Request: fold
Amino acid sequence: MRIVVLVKAVPIVGNERLLDDLRVDRGSGLEANGNDEYVLEEALKLSEAHGGEVTLLTVGPSGAVEALRKGLAMGATRAVHVEDAGIAGSGVRATVAILCAALSRLEYDLVLAGADTSDGQGGVVASAIAARLGLPYLSYASKVEPIGEGDGVRIHRLAPAGYDVEEAALPALVMGTQVLGEPRYPSLRGIMQARSKEVATWTLADLGLDAATVGAATAGTQVLSAAPPPPRGGATIVREEPDVAVERIIEFLAARRLV
Amino acid sequence: MSIRLTDEQRALRDAVRELADERIAPRAAEIDATAEFPWDVVKLLAEHDVLALPFPLAHGGLGADLLTTCLAVEQIARVCATSSLILAVQALGSLPLLLAGNDEQHARWFPDLAAGRMLAAFALTEPEAGSDAAALRTRAVREGSGDADAWRIDGNKRFITHGSVAGLVTVFAQTDTDPAAVKAHRHLTCFAVEQGTPGFSAGKLEHKMGIRGSPTAELLFDGVRVPDSQRVGAVGEGWAIAMGTLDRSRPGVAAQAVGLAQGATEVATRYAGERRQFGRPIGEFELIQGLLADMAARTEAARQLLYAACEEVESGSPRAARWSAMCKLVAGDTAMAVTTDAVQVLGGYGYIADYPVERMMRDAKITQLYEGTQQIQRLVVARDLLAHGA
Reply:
């Protein structure tokens, strides 16, 4: 199975910073979005079990290549990095257009995307790509398995009373959750091999896109203000010995009818 | 000379650091307390190819240079010195084979060693031959000829790191008792001996101050018969092999020392920011700041000397012995001083096992002792200075 995994390079969690114009600072310290690593792990497991190859696809500034290198070290076959000065500040619609143009130049049976990203948290890019490319869209997968010899894909989605099972013909787009399972650490051999794997860099011109259709000027939304969350106050810290502490905590919860 | 790590070296170092922080650090206190060899860490390091670093690509290794292997040792020692020895001693025990072994021997043992299916140990030291390593008494006598060409080894080794868990031990024995040969250091020969060979056994394990999870064994050789195909290098070449091995392995001890110093500095710095006395974090007091600044500066100085020494040794410098002795000397003393100061920063909390710095301080001491005491390092440096100029 030929799988494309959508990867976003996000600011290292804990180091996020906004620029003066309230856009996320992507100038330094990027890493692969956590959710994307979970679906990459699933893609690697599928390709190991059923054959095939895994291509990473990202749109982002030059620093995004670090996120791709890690994915290649984990075992992905190759990577595509769409990088163009005109892309900075693009909104969801332009990002989707770029990713769709890139996907149209790749051969794939399955596209995998993480649930959302730790920076933007819009969570709509995957569904928008599926809609625009006319791909079946299977969301919130907790398990992914192929049907037959490339006939289709089946997913499980956690539901209040167990899980739903959904199937679709290929090609399809699956959005996965962390229930899929922990991503692997890259092995040292993987890291050394990653240095010689192909990372293709594509520009807007390579994709046949007009720079006037993407970028900050075309964004349909704008961040008007941003403020750090207010400090949490009023925490009650229980410091007694365990036996006493348990009673105190139960009293606290019982008083609020939580137990 | 300035050392800039390559992108690949930084990526490998960071991967080992992540593995060490997330998977090894949580085990460190228990490994020290139980003094049990951490086979789970062996498995972890093997799974992530860490043990493959020093072995040739052709035999399942990663063909890493000395600096890269030392970067990995340093990162592991930052959180657990015992665990860092798993890689360092895998390299040490295999070095005689790497330096003097033939293709057949490489093909026979390196794949298992690189994959971590087998551990290696280096057996030079004896009860009466420590710093005076040339005075060893273990004897190897040739027996048989042709296909039956073999050696019979008798004697005892002591303080052999991983001696009881290694599947393969490179052992040094006297093969020529002629005083002229002894004087010319042509009296020793190296052999590779596998665990399970009749007559070969591990005796008592030492009860140690530090690196407590790392088994330090007495090795007994009682009429051990070893085919000539397991002789490493030429007859009489053993001393040169042992010294060549130490030139390349002492930076590994320095890497442990730098890692220990770095780990202790990190713990002390964090503590100084959190611990409040007199109404503010103790890190705001200049006497504490002075300790922290010196710890960081000394650690970095030792690290830079280590990296420079790795480059010198790797590039085949004729001064390799001097460089490797200098970096071990400086890094070992740095680790001892910095971990001691870390205990000082933590005060009473530094002295108890709830915090890792007392363990780091105990672990640091060994870096001033093994693979040549600091006094021996000074002899090596001074002899080289006097023979070749400063």
